[in-house]
Write a structure and sequence with these properties.
Blueprint: H1 3-16, H2 29-42, H3 47-54
Protein name: 2225_t:CDS:1
Length: 71
Amino acid sequence: MSQNKLGKMLHQIANLTGINLSDDRKIVNHSCHRTAIQMLKDEDIPEDEIMEFSDIEDIEVKEFEYFSGNS
């Protein structure tokens, strides 16, 4: 899948889910990854399960910011 097509898909997903990108913010694959990790942490999913899902070795809360479309 091309980078351009992926970018368009992410933009459509953001619009469909209510994330406001009207201030020219860009949403990229990394944004989605960070948001997914933060949402899992917010739901008290064990860090070892998050690490397995996300394919990262270490998780610290301060490293992840929830991507809010309304801020």
